[in-house]
Amino acid sequence: MRSITYGEVSIEKMCQLIKDYISKDDSKRYRVTVGTDSQNHELTRVVVVIAIWKVGYGGIFFYDVRNVKKITNIRQKIFYEASLSLDMAQKLSEALAEDHLELDIEIHVDVGENGPSSKMISEISGWVNACGFRCHTKPNSYAASCIANRITK
Predict the structure, then answer these.
(1) Which pTM was predicted?
(2) Over the Cα atoms of the chain, what is R_g?
(3) Structural domain boundaries of the chain?
(4) CA separation for the pair 10, 1 (Å, rounded)
(5) Cα(44)–Cα(111) distance, integer angstroms
C-alpha cells in the first residue's frame, strides 16, 4: 500500500495507521470508504483506494496499484474492481473490529446512470450490500471515480 502521508506501508501497517488516526480524535465522525478503478493502457492498471474522511476536517488515503492482463470486457472489469474493493473492505473491517472500532465501511463502485455500466448498478449494488457493506455509485463514489481514477491515469 502507498500513502502520500506515510509512504510505502504493508496492509497491516496501513490498518494500524488508520486505527491510530481514528483513535486520536474519537469525538469526530469518520467515513471509511474503499473504491477501485482501472484504466486500460498496454495492461490494465488497477487502483484500490482506502479513504478515511474525518467529516469536516479532511482525511487520509492509501492506495495500491497493480497491473494485470488487459481487461476489455466492461462487465469483467467492473466485477473485478468490485471484488478487489470487497476483499480490501473485509480485511479492513476485521482489523478495525480487533480494536472494537465499529465503523461502517462503504464501497464506492465506478458505475453510474450514464454509460455502459448503468445496466450493472443493481447487480453490483446488490452484491456489495449482500456482503454487508453500504454501496455508493456515481456521482457519490468519490473513492473510485475521483481518487482511484486520478491515480490510474
Answers:
(1) 0.94
(2) 15
(3) 2-152
(4) 6
(5) 17
